[in-house]
Design goal:
- With 90 residues, this protein is of the alpha+beta class.
- It has a single domain, classed as Translation Initiation Factor IF3.
- 27% of the residues lie in helices and 29% in strands.
- The chain contains two helices and four strands.
- A four-stranded mixed beta sheet has the order 1-2-4-3, covered by helices on one side.
- Helix 1 links the parallel strand 1 and strand 2.
- Helix 1 runs parallel beside helix 2.
- The radius of gyration is 13 Å and the shape is globular.
- It starts with 16 loop residues before the first strand and ends in a 5-residue tail after the last strand.
Length: 90
């Protein structure tokens, strides 16, 4: 396998990093997401797994408020997979 190029259609929505936050309560799930995003580079994609209820309602909204982009939210086996595009730092 060769390294993929950023921005090519073939790697669209392929996460660079994944974070399993099932069982992690608010606000720790957002704190962990925020710290992971800060460690990543602009334009990279983070996939997180969140529980139903407060986590899926609160974390994506908080991430958006930080200036990142929610690419998708998909239901997966009673939890949710959320793809986040890390904002480009000015």
């Amino acid at each position: 396998m060769h390294a993929h190029e950023r921005g090519s259609a073939t790697v669209k929505d392929q996460p660079d990093t994944e974070l399993d936050l099932r069982g992690v309560i608010c606000p720790y799930n957002f704190v962990k997401t925020k710290l992971k995003l800060e460690a990543m580079e602009g334009g990279q994609i983070l996939s997180i797994l969140l529980d139903e209820g407060d986590p899926i309602q609160n974390v994506p909204r908080s991430v958006s408020n930080e200036g990142h982009t929610i690419l998708s939210q998909d239901r997966v086996d009673g939890s949710y997979r959320v793809l986040i595009l890390r904002r480009e730092d000015e």
